[in-house]
Amino acid sequence: MPDIILASKSKVRKSILEKNNISCFVEPSNIDEEPVKESLIKEGATPEIISKNLAELKANKVSQKMEQDLVLGADSVIDLEGELISKPENRNEALDILKKLNGKKHHLISSVCISKNGSMLWNHTDKAKLTMKKMSVSDLEKYLSKIPDEALYAYNVYQIEGEGRSLFTDIQGDEDTIMGLPVKKIKDYLNK
Question: Pick from 19, 108, 119, 142: most CB atoms within 10 A?
Fold first, then answer.
């Protein structure tokens, strides 16, 4: 399997790749995602299209600098009945997000893109469906108090591999997808 460049600072994504014996080097894309999301939302793009476009944008940007290397870009978003939910900027936003998701079903969408020489070679988008328990605001605050800032701002409001599992009554989908990287499909592509 070839080495790849991961266009992301995500420790979780790097760890998933390494656990699956995919050697990678990190070269963050440093793309300002918000203006891209806003523009796509104005055009009527779905959360799935936004996730796919951001993954491709990240991979293409880094692959323009790292010629001849395979570059993996990834993006994950929450789709709550068509509304895009992004990562929180602070703890108040995190609590607002949890209140919105409270007692409801939502989809977590993870997109990946592999690019070379500034162009996409392959992409894949996967979806998981999660149903959050109905919880009191004080229980949501208690949950948030257990999550360190770094994890909260890097991986959205729940980490399914840790404390976050306790928020849900039902989880349907691939755990790696929920953590931000549908690695089985990446392995299939790289093995070809």
Answer: 108
- CA-based nearest residue to 167, from 177, 178, 176: 178
Question: Could you give the angle at the alpha carbon of 96 between the alpha carbons of 95 and 97, nearest 5°?
Answer: 90
- Per residue in 141-154, pLDDT (tens digit) is 999 998 888 777 76
The model's pTM is 0.91
Domain 4-191: which topology?
A: Maf protein (3.90.950)
Run of H or E residues at 116: strand 105-116
Indicate which residues carry an active-site annotation: 75
More confident residue, 1 or 105: 105
